[in-house]
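Reviewer 2 asked us to include a model.

Predict the structure of this chain.
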Amino acid sequence: MAEIYNLKNLQPGDRLVLPKSNLGFVQHHAIYIGNDAYGNRQYVENYIGKGVQMVNESYLFRDGYHLTRVEPFTGNGFQRRLAVNRAVALIGTQYDLVNFNCEHYANTVQYNKPFSNQVGNGILATLLLAVIGIGFSK
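Predicted model (structure tokens):
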């Protein structure tokens, strides 16, 4: 059964992880940065072809309100403000699938370290398939 998330409980710096496909193998990461002057929740994401951009909730959930999980920011209030500042400062940075995708971006914001487990897992899976392919070709 799918877990229900109350977006009203989000705090600036929290990460939303959304499925990018029906199978859920690839996930999209975005950072909640707070509400605008009208009370609308605002997010920053790194999107292929667009780079790091600020988006509203209706744009972020344009394919429906599907969430894999919410990862709360784990630091104190000062660290949370620094994370939100990092999120906004990166707006305009170009998307790069291998070196700076949406997961790299979210990890940079939350941990101040750009890394992507999805890229690492993809590389590992590719290597494993190559080794298996070589084994079967003999």
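The longest helix spans residues 117-137. The mean pLDDT is 87. We have added this to the supplementary material.
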